[in-house]
Amino acid sequence: MGLHADLREKLISDYGKLSPQMQKAARYILDHPNDVALRSMRALARAADVPPSTVTRLMTAIGVDTWQQFRDHYQNRLLDLPASYANRARETQNVSQDVDRDQHLLESIARTEIDNIDKAFGAELRGRTIDACAAIENARQVFVVGRGAAYPAAYQFAYAYRLFRDNVVLVDGRSGAFGDQLRGINRRDVMIAIGARPYIRDTVRAVDYARSQHCPVIAICDSDVAPIALDAMIKLIVSDKSQSFFQSFTAAVSLVQAIVALLVARGGQKALERIATAEEQLAAFDTYVEDPSPTRNS
Question: Which parts of the sequence belong to the HTH rpiR-type domain (predicted)?
């Protein structure tokens, strides 16, 4: 493991022991590692909205002597990133300023969403995503929770997963049954929790309850130190960066779709038979409008 990874893991493991101000600085560093490489300590502190002395105390707490030493590790990490990220950044800066405003905004939105998805499918997350699939396959029950803007990702997973397996519980709290839907959860199960800041209280409570029942958690969220990621068995950290006023869940939706695809690919003939049975049931209820064109994803 490289030294950058060591520092990152140290920030995560010691996060609960830090003061609120140092937690604020640590979270910013975890969420914006490139800023450590590219900014001065004062500029980083200003961006994190903490005094520079807080950053100094944080470095001391994790065993780093100087800012330059801390910065060097993050600069080395930056050098190892794929060149495409640097090229995209350069292209974005070079876009002509006289381009029509709306077209420029749409282009910027597209680049941001593509970058979010690229990071979700990067080398660092691929192994964790495969580990998540293995945990889901071995679980007695799969509980899925994602409230607020994260709900489409949670629903997408539960709906698609239910087409080939019948052990999923979408924890959506309908008719006030939020707590009831978690009844019986235990160490043989797994919970998939999806969220981003600001975190929905119900999602955090569901994760806390799962932990109390020794149920492992797969967190799909925006930070290693998000409330739903702390002590998670597997953390799938995705970017929610957006050019809009509202955070983006495009990467989270793409990731749950990928997990479903992997599970089907690993499920063999049994998964295909169950999907065929589900399609027959949907046809029996005349669910879809007749379409003469070829079936998608056939």
Answer: 5-81
Identify the sign of the CA torsion 285, 288, 290, 295.
Answer: negative
Residue 67's CB is within 10 A of a number of other CB atoms, namely: 17
**How many structural domains is the chain composed of?**
2
Q: How far is CA 36 from CA 4, 79, 100, in A?
A: 11, 13, 34
Task: Please indicate, yes or no, whether residues 176 and 256 belong to a single structural domain of this protein.
Answer: yes
Summarize pLDDT for 123-135 with one digit per residue, the tens: 889 999 999 999 9
| pTM of the predicted structure, to 2 decimals | 0.76
User: For residue 50, which of 71, 20, 10 has the smallest C-alpha distance?
Assistant: 20
CATH number at residue 29: 1.10.10.10
Range(s) of the domain holding residue 32: 3-79
**Terminus-to-terminus CA distance in the chain, angstroms?**
42
Q: Give the type of residue at 173.
A: G
